[in-house]
């Protein structure tokens, strides 16, 4: 059968947890869905990507030879730069045709990002209201990930999952790097921490949640119930962005603790 907009349905589930109710409530909230087009650009190099409420992805990269002023005529250098900008803008407009982006961020390590933005606005003035420029260390995939930690991007995505989850993982990795003893990961260690009420925030990947629901993993479901019972916060991490993938690398389960574990 087909479910269309405004169709009323009933959901029958034998066992509901507070986490399940929380997920339904969050899904029901009406809010502006943010979708940002990212272009990381430098001399002769550009990487395209997207950031949404719960995902980030890199689509394509472009490379174009742009001679420096020291090695050729200044006019040739400017012409080559503009030819590169034209190629980047053509790709940008192709991406915009299929999607309604709320903002376009032009990022990069030098002045090229500003030159490209001015080029776009000169060619098509209507883009000015959507365009933002932001400095990053490289026009590569790593530069796109860097943007999530920028105040400008966090302000645009202030109520989105991707920002909340990125901050949690940053905190987890910072504590781990400092060896503070108040983080754990993996089922056994998380279970031990929960037994003494130490879990403040439990991070579990969406992939693990789907698996445990499908396979009715009673041990894991009981762990989640016990975390809730001990007033721990449970966050389901999307594996469609870098932070969620990092938690997946720790077995799909990690926690920030209220206090240091004693071994």
Number of H/I helices:
10
Per the CATH scheme, the topology name of the largest domain is Nucleotidyltransferase, domain 5
- Specify the helix fraction band: 40-55%
CATH architecture assignment name of the largest domain: 2-Layer Sandwich
Q: Segments where pLDDT lies below 50 for 5+ residues?
A: none
Strand order of the largest sheet: 3-2-1-4-5
General shape: elongated
The CATH class designation of the largest domain is Alpha Beta
**Average of per-residue pLDDT values:** 85
Number of domains: 2
Strand segment count: 9
Largest sheet: 5 strands, mixed
State the order of secondary-structure elements, H for helix, E for strand.
Answer: HEEEHEHEHHHEHEHHEHE
Radius of gyration: 23 Å
Quick one: CATH superfamily of the largest domain?
A: eRF1 domain 2
Overview of this structure, please?
The chain is an alpha/beta fold and 263 residues long. It folds into two domains: 18-27 and 160-257, Ribosomal protein L30/S12 (60s Ribosomal Protein L30, Chain: A); 35-156, Nucleotidyltransferase, domain 5 (2-Layer Sandwich), CATH 3.30.420.60. The protein is 45% helix and 21% strand. The protein has ten helices and nine strands. It has helices at residues 18-28, 74-98, 112-123, 141-147, 151-156, 161-178, 187-195, 206-215, 218-229, 242-249; strands at residues 35-42, 45-52, 56-63, 103-108, 131-135, 183-185, 199-205, 233-237, 253-257. The strands form two sheets. The protein has a five-stranded mixed sheet with strand order 3-2-1-4-5, sandwiched between helices. The chain has a four-stranded mixed sheet with strand order 6-9-7-8, sandwiched between helices. Strand 1 and strand 2 form a beta hairpin. The longest helix has 25 residues, at 74-98.
């Amino acid at each position: 059968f087909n479910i269309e907009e405004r169709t009323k349905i009933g959901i029958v589930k034998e066992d509901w947890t507070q986490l399940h109710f929380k997920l339904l409530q969050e899904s029901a909230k009406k809010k502006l869905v943010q979708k940002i087009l990212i272009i990381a650009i430098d001399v002769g190099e550009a990487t395209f990507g997207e950031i949404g409420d719960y995902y980030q992805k890199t689509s394509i990269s472009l490379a174009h030879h742009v001679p420096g002023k020291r090695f050729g005529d200044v006019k040739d250098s400017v012409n080559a730069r503009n030819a590169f900008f034209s190629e980047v803008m053509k790709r940008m407009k192709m991406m915009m045709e299929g999607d309604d982006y709320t903002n376009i961020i032009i990022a990069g390590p030098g002045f090229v990002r500003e030159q490209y933005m001015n080029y776009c606005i000169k060619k098509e003035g209507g883009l000015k209201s959507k365009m933002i420029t932001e400095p990053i260390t490289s026009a590569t995939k790593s530069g796109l990930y860097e943007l999530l930690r920028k105040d400008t991007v966090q302000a645009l995505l202030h109520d989105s999952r991707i920002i909340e989850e990125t901050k949690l993982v940053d905190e987890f990795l910072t504590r781990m790097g400092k060896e503070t003893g108040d983080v754990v990961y993996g089922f056994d260690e998380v279970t031990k921490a929960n037994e003494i009420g130490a879990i403040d925030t439990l991070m579990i990947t969406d992939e693990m949640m789907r698996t445990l629901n499908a396979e009715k993993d009673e041990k894991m479901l009981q762990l989640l119930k016990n975390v809730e019972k001990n007033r721990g916060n449970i966050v389901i991490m999307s594996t469609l962005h870098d932070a969620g993938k990092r938690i997946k690398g720790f077995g799909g389960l990690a926690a920030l603790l209220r206090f240091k574990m004693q071994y």
